[in-house]
From TrEMBL:
<dbReference type="GO" id="GO:0016787">
    <property type="term" value="F:hydrolase activity"/>
</dbReference>
<keyword id="KW-0732">Signal</keyword>
<dbReference type="Pfam" id="PF00756">
    <property type="entry name" value="Esterase"/>
</dbReference>
<dbReference type="InterPro" id="IPR052558">
    <property type="entry name" value="Siderophore_Hydrolase_D"/>
</dbReference>
<comment type="similarity">
    <text>Belongs to the esterase D family.</text>
</comment>
<keyword id="KW-0378">Hydrolase</keyword>
<feature type="signal peptide">
    <location>
        <begin position="1"/>
        <end position="16"/>
    </location>
</feature>
<dbReference type="InterPro" id="IPR029058">
    <property type="entry name" value="AB_hydrolase_fold"/>
</dbReference>
<dbReference type="InterPro" id="IPR000801">
    <property type="entry name" value="Esterase-like"/>
</dbReference>
<protein>
    <submittedName>
        <fullName>Alpha/beta hydrolase</fullName>
    </submittedName>
</protein>
């Protein structure tokens, strides 16, 4: 009985140890995480970096894809970029994901960092207790990317900083438009999916008009994509409010305004993806947007 008791105790201890042992997480191949302090914003972020398959064995420089909303979008962008190279002959690229601010909830961080203004209609609640809702820092965040993220990437990787691609979706596309309408040559190519052009009563339409009044050129290429289901529900009257927005019509109007102003150096494409909605369309926008810029063998 003594030996049976010892055996039972040992078995139970082993089972408990097995249960308590941490299960390792899945790690994406050829990826790195770098900490970066945004001195201008007084916040800390992370950069998620995916290197091409050939990076370690080559000496060449690669175009760089910068993607916001990195928690979701980085692994998607990494996978699509890799697959386009392996199976469709597209050139390889470094993918850099820009995280939300450390210590912030995702909604709080993206509302603050990606939106171009403080909404005049108000009505937003903060998702972080004890902190007021924050908006309107897209211009400052765009400067952080250009003046702090770019030098960091250039110093640590063989990046071709003459071929930089911005990728954003929804609020992330508002950030891209803010950069495009203030310092368009920050990136050579913009991939903008389902931009929230209803935000702040259509403030980006006003900013495009202001840009056109002061500039005749816009040196960049832009791929716009959106799902065909991102339209106004039947029976509703269209307005520039989130609940009554027709995002497809808004994007067609914005794209038309860019075309009407005939900016020198600007090349744009707009594609509406059939049977896709706001939640499902991003991988298609990214795939077609990369094809529109990266070279094919």
């Amino acid at each position: 009985m003594f030996f049976l008791g010892c055996f039972a105790t040992a078995t139970a201890a082993a089972a408990a140890a097995e249960v308590a042992a941490p299960v390792p997480g899945y790690v994406l191949d050829n990826t790195e995480v770098r900490e970066i302090h945004a001195a201008s914003l007084k916040r800390d972020y992370q950069l998620y970096v995916a290197l091409p398959d050939s990076y370690r064995a080559s000496e060449r420089r690669y175009p760089v894809v910068f993607v916001v909303d990195a928690g979701y979008a980085f692994p998607v962008a990494r996978g699509i970029a890799s697959r386009l190279h392996r199976h469709a002959g597209m050139e390889e690229a470094i993918v850099v994901g820009l995280s939300y601010a450390k210590g912030d909830e995702g909604v709080y961080s993206r509302r603050r960092d990606y939106t171009p203004s403080v909404p005049r209609n108000g009505g937003y609640r903060s998702d972080m207790p004890g902190r007021p809702a924050a908006f309107g820092e897209a211009d400052a965040y765009g400067r952080f990317i250009a003046t702090e993220v770019f030098p960091h990437v250039a110093a640590h990787y063989r990046a071709d900083m003459r071929r930089k691609i911005f990728v954003g979706h929804s609020y992330g596309s508002l950030l891209g438009l803010q950069v495009l309408l203030t310092r368009p040559n920050t990136f050579e190519h913009y991939i903008l999916g389902s931009p929230s052009l209803w935000f702040d009563r259509g403030v980006m339409f006003d900013r495009e008009k202001a840009y056109a009044a002061a500039h005749g050129d816009m040196p960049a290429s832009v791929f716009f994509g959106i799902g065909s289901r991102e339209t106004l529900a039947p029976g509703k009257q269209r307005s520039r409010a989130e609940e009554d927005a027709d995002m497809v019509a808004d994007l067609r109007d914005f794209h038309g305004a860019l075309a009407a102003h005939r900016y020198r150096g600007l090349a744009t494409t707009l594609k509406v993806f059939a049977d896709e909605d706001h939640a499902s369309v991003f991988p298609l926008v990214l795939t077609h947007g990369l094809r529109a810029y990266l070279k094919q063998k």
